[in-house]
User: What shape does this take?
Amino acid sequence: MNKIENIKDMKYANDVTLVSTLIKKWVKSKPTNKELLAVQQSFINIAIYGCTLQNTLEACKLANSDYREQRNQAVIELDEIKEDLKEYKI
Assistant: This one.
C-alpha cells in the first residue's frame, strides 16, 4: 500500500469514528427516535461496506503479487529450459 492510500484510509477511519461517536451520542439522548435509529443502522452498514471494500482491495493486491511472482518464476524456469535445450540442438 502506498502513502496516499494510507492517508486516505486513515482519513476514512477518522471520519467513521467521528460520525459513529456523534450518532451514538444522539441515540443515547433520544433512544426511541426511529429516524435516528435508522440513520444509525444505515451508517453501520455503510461503514461495514467501506471496510469490506478496503479488505477486498488488499486481498486482490496480495493475490496479484502472488500471481506476478508465480509468472516471474515460470519465466525464469522457461529460460533455464531453453538454455538446457540449446545444448541438445545441433
Remarks:
- The chain has two helices and no strands.
- Residues 3-88 form one domain.
- The chain has a mean pLDDT of 94.
- The chain has one domain: 3-88.
